[in-house]
Amino acid sequence: MEGLSFNLLEGFRLLDIIDIFLVAVIVYYVYSLIKGTIAVNILLGVGLFYGIYLVVKQLEMRLLTEIFGGFISVGSIALIVVFQQEIRRFLLHVGKNISMRRKKFFWTFLGAKKTAQQDHSEKIKPIIDACRSMSRSRTGALLVFSKYFDEEYYQSSGEYIDAPVSKRLLESIFFKNSPLHDGAVVIVDFRVMTASSVLPLSDSEDLPPQFGLRHRAAIGVTEVSEAIAVIVSEETGEISFAKDGNVNMNLSPEELEELLKEEL
Protein backbone atom coordinates (compact mmCIF):
# COMPACT_ATOMS: atom_id res chain seq x y z
CA MET A 1 0.00 0.00 0.00
CA GLU A 2 2.85 2.36 0.93
CA GLY A 3 4.63 1.42 -2.31
CA LEU A 4 1.52 2.32 -4.33
CA SER A 5 1.27 5.73 -2.65
CA PHE A 6 4.96 6.35 -3.28
CA ASN A 7 4.57 5.48 -6.96
CA LEU A 8 1.63 7.85 -7.33
CA LEU A 9 3.57 10.71 -5.75
CA GLU A 10 6.62 9.91 -7.82
CA GLY A 11 4.60 10.25 -11.04
CA PHE A 12 3.11 13.60 -9.94
CA ARG A 13 4.90 16.48 -11.69
CA LEU A 14 4.94 20.24 -11.25
CA LEU A 15 3.16 20.54 -14.59
CA ASP A 16 0.31 18.46 -13.18
CA ILE A 17 -0.18 21.02 -10.39
CA ILE A 18 -0.17 23.85 -12.96
CA ASP A 19 -2.62 21.86 -15.08
CA ILE A 20 -5.05 21.42 -12.17
CA PHE A 21 -4.73 25.10 -11.23
CA LEU A 22 -5.49 26.30 -14.77
CA VAL A 23 -8.52 24.00 -15.03
CA ALA A 24 -9.78 25.35 -11.69
CA VAL A 25 -9.40 28.94 -12.94
CA ILE A 26 -11.33 28.17 -16.14
CA VAL A 27 -14.11 26.42 -14.18
CA TYR A 28 -14.33 29.41 -11.82
CA TYR A 29 -14.58 31.90 -14.70
CA VAL A 30 -17.24 29.82 -16.46
CA TYR A 31 -19.25 29.48 -13.26
CA SER A 32 -19.02 33.22 -12.50
CA LEU A 33 -20.34 34.01 -16.00
CA ILE A 34 -23.33 31.63 -15.93
CA LYS A 35 -24.18 32.02 -12.23
CA GLY A 36 -27.73 33.28 -11.79
CA THR A 37 -28.68 32.71 -15.44
CA ILE A 38 -30.87 30.13 -17.12
CA ALA A 39 -27.69 28.49 -18.41
CA VAL A 40 -27.20 26.88 -14.97
CA ASN A 41 -30.50 25.01 -15.30
CA ILE A 42 -29.56 23.90 -18.82
CA LEU A 43 -26.19 22.65 -17.58
CA LEU A 44 -27.89 20.69 -14.78
CA GLY A 45 -30.23 19.14 -17.36
CA VAL A 46 -27.27 18.14 -19.53
CA GLY A 47 -25.54 16.59 -16.50
CA LEU A 48 -28.69 14.63 -15.58
CA PHE A 49 -29.06 13.45 -19.17
CA TYR A 50 -25.47 12.19 -19.24
CA GLY A 51 -25.92 10.48 -15.85
CA ILE A 52 -28.96 8.58 -17.14
CA TYR A 53 -26.94 7.54 -20.18
CA LEU A 54 -24.20 6.05 -17.97
CA VAL A 55 -26.78 4.17 -15.87
CA VAL A 56 -28.61 2.59 -18.84
CA LYS A 57 -25.26 1.71 -20.39
CA GLN A 58 -24.14 -0.11 -17.24
CA LEU A 59 -27.50 -1.92 -17.05
CA GLU A 60 -27.00 -2.98 -20.70
CA MET A 61 -30.36 -1.55 -21.79
CA ARG A 62 -29.41 -1.55 -25.45
CA LEU A 63 -32.28 0.43 -26.94
CA LEU A 64 -32.05 3.30 -24.46
CA THR A 65 -28.26 3.21 -24.71
CA GLU A 66 -28.47 3.66 -28.49
CA ILE A 67 -30.98 6.52 -28.16
CA PHE A 68 -29.04 8.39 -25.48
CA GLY A 69 -25.73 7.60 -27.19
CA GLY A 70 -26.99 9.28 -30.37
CA PHE A 71 -27.60 12.50 -28.44
CA ILE A 72 -24.27 12.25 -26.60
CA SER A 73 -22.36 11.85 -29.89
CA VAL A 74 -23.49 15.30 -31.04
CA GLY A 75 -23.41 16.74 -27.54
CA SER A 76 -20.38 19.00 -28.10
CA ILE A 77 -22.04 20.71 -31.07
CA ALA A 78 -25.32 21.05 -29.15
CA LEU A 79 -23.52 22.60 -26.18
CA ILE A 80 -21.84 25.19 -28.42
CA VAL A 81 -25.24 26.15 -29.86
CA VAL A 82 -26.99 26.27 -26.48
CA PHE A 83 -24.20 28.11 -24.67
CA GLN A 84 -23.09 30.39 -27.52
CA GLN A 85 -23.84 33.56 -25.51
CA GLU A 86 -21.94 32.27 -22.47
CA ILE A 87 -18.96 31.21 -24.63
CA ARG A 88 -18.99 34.61 -26.35
CA ARG A 89 -19.15 36.37 -22.99
CA PHE A 90 -16.24 34.28 -21.64
CA LEU A 91 -14.01 35.04 -24.64
CA LEU A 92 -14.92 38.75 -24.50
CA HIS A 93 -14.09 38.83 -20.79
CA VAL A 94 -10.66 37.28 -21.39
CA GLY A 95 -9.94 39.53 -24.38
CA LYS A 96 -11.09 42.63 -22.53
CA ASN A 97 -8.72 41.99 -19.63
CA ILE A 98 -5.80 41.58 -22.04
CA SER A 99 -6.81 44.74 -23.93
CA MET A 100 -7.11 46.80 -20.73
CA ARG A 101 -3.65 45.74 -19.53
CA ARG A 102 -2.13 46.56 -22.93
CA LYS A 103 -3.71 50.03 -23.02
CA LYS A 104 -2.67 50.75 -19.43
CA PHE A 105 0.94 49.93 -20.29
CA PHE A 106 0.72 52.01 -23.47
CA TRP A 107 -0.54 55.14 -21.70
CA THR A 108 1.96 54.74 -18.87
CA PHE A 109 4.78 54.43 -21.38
CA LEU A 110 3.79 57.61 -23.23
CA GLY A 111 2.93 59.57 -20.08
CA ALA A 112 -0.18 60.95 -21.79
CA LYS A 113 -2.94 59.48 -19.63
CA LYS A 114 -3.69 62.76 -17.83
CA THR A 115 -4.04 64.68 -21.11
CA ALA A 116 -6.39 62.05 -22.53
CA GLN A 117 -8.60 62.24 -19.41
CA GLN A 118 -8.83 66.02 -19.74
CA ASP A 119 -9.88 65.73 -23.39
CA HIS A 120 -12.52 63.13 -22.51
CA SER A 121 -13.91 65.33 -19.73
CA GLU A 122 -15.01 67.92 -22.27
CA LYS A 123 -16.63 65.26 -24.44
CA ILE A 124 -18.37 63.57 -21.52
CA LYS A 125 -19.85 66.82 -20.17
CA PRO A 126 -22.86 66.95 -22.61
CA ILE A 127 -23.71 63.35 -21.69
CA ILE A 128 -23.66 64.12 -17.97
CA ASP A 129 -25.69 67.29 -18.44
CA ALA A 130 -28.30 65.39 -20.47
CA CYS A 131 -28.53 62.61 -17.86
CA ARG A 132 -28.87 65.17 -15.06
CA SER A 133 -31.66 66.96 -16.92
CA MET A 134 -33.50 63.73 -17.82
CA SER A 135 -33.17 62.49 -14.25
CA ARG A 136 -34.83 65.65 -12.91
CA SER A 137 -37.68 65.44 -15.44
CA ARG A 138 -37.94 61.64 -15.05
CA THR A 139 -37.39 61.03 -18.72
CA GLY A 140 -36.52 57.40 -19.40
CA ALA A 141 -33.28 56.88 -21.30
CA LEU A 142 -30.86 54.13 -22.28
CA LEU A 143 -27.39 55.01 -23.60
CA VAL A 144 -24.99 52.33 -24.84
CA PHE A 145 -21.28 53.13 -25.25
CA SER A 146 -19.53 50.75 -27.62
CA LYS A 147 -15.88 50.64 -28.68
CA TYR A 148 -16.85 49.96 -32.31
CA PHE A 149 -20.00 50.19 -34.40
CA ASP A 150 -21.36 46.81 -35.44
CA GLU A 151 -23.77 47.74 -38.25
CA GLU A 152 -25.38 44.30 -38.40
CA TYR A 153 -25.87 44.25 -34.63
CA TYR A 154 -27.09 47.82 -33.95
CA GLN A 155 -28.24 49.44 -37.19
CA SER A 156 -30.56 46.59 -38.18
CA SER A 157 -32.89 47.44 -35.30
CA GLY A 158 -32.44 51.22 -35.01
CA GLU A 159 -32.40 54.50 -36.91
CA TYR A 160 -28.98 55.50 -38.25
CA ILE A 161 -27.98 59.04 -37.15
CA ASP A 162 -24.17 59.46 -36.98
CA ALA A 163 -24.06 62.86 -35.26
CA PRO A 164 -21.84 64.38 -32.54
CA VAL A 165 -23.09 63.90 -28.99
CA SER A 166 -24.85 66.92 -27.54
CA LYS A 167 -27.18 67.57 -24.62
CA ARG A 168 -30.03 68.78 -26.84
CA LEU A 169 -29.73 65.84 -29.21
CA LEU A 170 -30.01 63.28 -26.40
CA GLU A 171 -32.91 65.14 -24.76
CA SER A 172 -34.71 65.37 -28.11
CA ILE A 173 -34.31 61.65 -28.81
CA PHE A 174 -35.64 60.57 -25.41
CA PHE A 175 -38.45 63.14 -25.23
CA LYS A 176 -41.58 61.11 -24.50
CA ASN A 177 -43.36 62.24 -27.69
CA SER A 178 -40.35 61.58 -29.91
CA PRO A 179 -40.73 58.62 -32.31
CA LEU A 180 -37.21 57.51 -31.33
CA HIS A 181 -37.57 57.56 -27.53
CA ASP A 182 -38.16 53.79 -27.27
CA GLY A 183 -35.03 51.68 -27.39
CA ALA A 184 -31.39 52.62 -26.92
CA VAL A 185 -29.01 55.23 -28.26
CA VAL A 186 -25.68 53.73 -29.35
CA ILE A 187 -22.65 56.01 -28.93
CA VAL A 188 -19.25 55.24 -30.50
CA ASP A 189 -16.29 57.63 -30.14
CA PHE A 190 -18.66 60.29 -28.75
CA ARG A 191 -20.92 60.15 -31.79
CA VAL A 192 -24.56 59.10 -31.67
CA MET A 193 -24.62 56.32 -34.27
CA THR A 194 -28.17 54.97 -33.87
CA ALA A 195 -31.31 55.63 -31.87
CA SER A 196 -34.29 53.41 -31.01
CA SER A 197 -32.07 50.31 -31.14
CA VAL A 198 -33.47 47.05 -29.78
CA LEU A 199 -31.07 45.22 -27.46
CA PRO A 200 -31.00 41.62 -26.18
CA LEU A 201 -32.65 41.25 -22.77
CA SER A 202 -30.78 39.57 -19.93
CA ASP A 203 -32.09 36.16 -18.93
CA SER A 204 -30.57 36.36 -15.43
CA GLU A 205 -32.87 35.06 -12.70
CA ASP A 206 -31.25 37.18 -9.96
CA LEU A 207 -32.41 40.59 -11.18
CA PRO A 208 -34.62 42.66 -8.85
CA PRO A 209 -38.33 42.52 -9.78
CA GLN A 210 -38.47 46.32 -10.17
CA PHE A 211 -36.08 46.18 -13.13
CA GLY A 212 -37.93 47.05 -16.33
CA LEU A 213 -37.02 46.53 -19.98
CA ARG A 214 -34.40 49.32 -19.99
CA HIS A 215 -32.43 47.77 -17.14
CA ARG A 216 -32.71 44.25 -18.57
CA ALA A 217 -31.63 45.48 -22.00
CA ALA A 218 -28.67 47.36 -20.50
CA ILE A 219 -27.57 44.26 -18.59
CA GLY A 220 -28.16 42.06 -21.63
CA VAL A 221 -26.01 44.09 -24.01
CA THR A 222 -23.15 44.31 -21.49
CA GLU A 223 -23.30 40.54 -20.97
CA VAL A 224 -22.71 39.74 -24.64
CA SER A 225 -20.38 42.59 -25.64
CA GLU A 226 -17.71 44.97 -24.33
CA ALA A 227 -20.21 47.83 -24.27
CA ILE A 228 -21.23 49.75 -21.15
CA ALA A 229 -24.66 51.30 -20.60
CA VAL A 230 -26.29 54.17 -18.70
CA ILE A 231 -29.95 54.00 -17.68
CA VAL A 232 -32.23 56.80 -16.51
CA SER A 233 -35.36 55.43 -14.87
CA GLU A 234 -38.66 56.86 -16.07
CA GLU A 235 -40.39 56.00 -12.79
CA THR A 236 -37.85 57.35 -10.28
CA GLY A 237 -35.33 59.38 -12.31
CA GLU A 238 -32.58 57.20 -10.83
CA ILE A 239 -29.35 56.94 -12.83
CA SER A 240 -27.73 53.50 -13.17
CA PHE A 241 -24.56 52.22 -14.82
CA ALA A 242 -24.16 48.72 -16.31
CA LYS A 243 -20.96 46.87 -17.14
CA ASP A 244 -20.22 43.15 -17.63
CA GLY A 245 -23.78 42.29 -16.62
CA ASN A 246 -23.54 44.15 -13.30
CA VAL A 247 -25.40 47.34 -12.36
CA ASN A 248 -24.44 50.29 -10.14
CA MET A 249 -27.67 51.96 -9.07
CA ASN A 250 -28.71 55.33 -7.67
CA LEU A 251 -25.71 57.26 -8.97
CA SER A 252 -25.28 60.99 -8.82
CA PRO A 253 -24.24 62.79 -12.04
CA GLU A 254 -20.79 63.30 -10.51
CA GLU A 255 -20.40 59.58 -9.78
CA LEU A 256 -21.54 58.76 -13.30
CA GLU A 257 -18.97 61.19 -14.71
CA GLU A 258 -16.16 59.44 -12.83
CA LEU A 259 -17.27 56.04 -14.12
CA LEU A 260 -17.46 57.24 -17.72
CA LYS A 261 -14.04 58.89 -17.47
CA GLU A 262 -12.58 55.61 -16.28
CA GLU A 263 -14.28 53.49 -18.94
CA LEU A 264 -14.08 55.82 -21.96
UniProtKB/TrEMBL annotation:
<keyword id="KW-1003">Cell membrane</keyword>
<keyword id="KW-0548">Nucleotidyltransferase</keyword>
<keyword id="KW-0472">Membrane</keyword>
<dbReference type="InterPro" id="IPR036888">
    <property type="entry name" value="DNA_integrity_DisA_N_sf"/>
</dbReference>
<keyword id="KW-0808">Transferase</keyword>
<dbReference type="GO" id="GO:0005524">
    <property type="term" value="F:ATP binding"/>
</dbReference>
<feature type="domain" description="DAC">
    <location>
        <begin position="84"/>
        <end position="253"/>
    </location>
</feature>
<comment type="subunit">
    <text>Probably a homodimer.</text>
</comment>
<keyword id="KW-1133">Transmembrane helix</keyword>
<dbReference type="InterPro" id="IPR045585">
    <property type="entry name" value="CdaA_N"/>
</dbReference>
<dbReference type="Pfam" id="PF02457">
    <property type="entry name" value="DAC"/>
</dbReference>
<dbReference type="GO" id="GO:0106408">
    <property type="term" value="F:diadenylate cyclase activity"/>
</dbReference>
<feature type="transmembrane region" description="Helical">
    <location>
        <begin position="12"/>
        <end position="31"/>
    </location>
</feature>
<dbReference type="InterPro" id="IPR003390">
    <property type="entry name" value="DNA_integrity_scan_DisA_N"/>
</dbReference>
<feature type="transmembrane region" description="Helical">
    <location>
        <begin position="37"/>
        <end position="56"/>
    </location>
</feature>
<feature type="transmembrane region" description="Helical">
    <location>
        <begin position="63"/>
        <end position="83"/>
    </location>
</feature>
<dbReference type="Pfam" id="PF19293">
    <property type="entry name" value="CdaA_N"/>
</dbReference>
<comment type="similarity">
    <text>Belongs to the adenylate cyclase family. DacA/CdaA subfamily.</text>
</comment>
<dbReference type="GO" id="GO:0004016">
    <property type="term" value="F:adenylate cyclase activity"/>
</dbReference>
<comment type="function">
    <text>Catalyzes the condensation of 2 ATP molecules into cyclic di-AMP (c-di-AMP), a second messenger used to regulate differing processes in different bacteria.</text>
</comment>
<keyword id="KW-0067">ATP-binding</keyword>
<keyword id="KW-0812">Transmembrane</keyword>
<protein>
    <recommendedName>
        <fullName>Diadenylate cyclase</fullName>
        <ecNumber>2.7.7.85</ecNumber>
    </recommendedName>
</protein>
<dbReference type="InterPro" id="IPR034701">
    <property type="entry name" value="CdaA"/>
</dbReference>
<dbReference type="InterPro" id="IPR050338">
    <property type="entry name" value="DisA"/>
</dbReference>
<dbReference type="GO" id="GO:0006171">
    <property type="term" value="P:cAMP biosynthetic process"/>
</dbReference>
<dbReference type="InterPro" id="IPR014046">
    <property type="entry name" value="C-di-AMP_synthase"/>
</dbReference>
<keyword id="KW-0547">Nucleotide-binding</keyword>
